[in-house]
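Comment thread on ticket #2218

A.B. wrote:
> Attaching the input chain for the structure job we discussed in standup.
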Amino acid sequence: MSKKVGQVMSTEPTTVKRSTAVRVAAELMSQEDVGSLPVIGDTGELVGIVTDRDIVVRAVAAGQDVDAVQVGEILTAHPVSVSPDDPLDEAMELMAGYRVRRLPVVIDTQLVGVLAQADVAQEAKDKQAGQVLEAISQDSDDKVGGRARG
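C.D. wrote:
> Ran it. Output below, let me know if you need it in another format.
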């Protein structure tokens, strides 16, 4: 029987709100050594994800003031996500298919964790898991919702 996402996910991930300044989100990404952060609403519901690529393309390259622009203005709504009850192998296939390194884990709409490539790597004991990790890492851009993400 396959492990479930909830058995290996990281709980209590660093998050931001729509009103968070883009610079603050970038600083958190640097501190946490991650390329994306879940964006939550006032009651903990997942409302989107913001990536380092969003910051570069939608804020910095667009000439925006990263202290004035809020995450809500550049986030990607409706990111690919999984449930803690989903099989880990299916989550790994999603990560490979969308080439994302982190998947928000939700129950209904509530964020309960993040499944990161590092979490999966700890479980990569068979050839399939190793191949999935390789597929995730082949592209330097993450894809969320069918478009390139960083």
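A.B. wrote:
> Thanks. Noting for the ticket: The chain has one domain: 5-139.
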